[in-house]
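Please, does this match?
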Amino acid sequence: MSQAANPQGVATSDEVELDFSSPSEDAADALSRDQVMVRSMHADDLPALLAIDRAITHDEGRAEYLTHQFNEAMDHAGVRVSLVAEGEAGQPVGFMMARVDFGEFGRTEPEAVMDTLGVDPLYGHAGVGSALMSQLLANLRTLRVDTVRTGVRWNDYSLLHFLEACGFRPSQHLALRKRLA
């Protein structure tokens, strides 16, 4: 409530403060992270995250990669902002692993890198990815990070569409690779 609406600063019965965090009102106005519980990643989340990733990719070979990323998020001293979304029963239904880099390749300003995003297929299109992204961006703003980057396979159209809807655009950097074997 603003002072201009009521110069004494006291709420009257005809003044109602809008609560945009309440999902009981119009869901379009509610913040996605208020509809899905998002928290920091815990050490005991790994088995659930592996199961979510396996359900998405159907690739058992990614367990080593994901375990490495998870251990880095839990154990290394860098600024990590990795998150887990919970279902109604408190079980993990999505995750996002990210970190803050304080410069590389001649860049000196802090930039976040989103390494991995996964949403249990049973919770697809339920706002889980949006809640994770919303919380990540809020956390990064608090850390005064201005940009987030990630990599996507060129033909992963559903992920590209999601990231575009979140405001991601192609960057001016070109990733180069050389196979050694």
Notes: The longest strand covers residues 92-101.
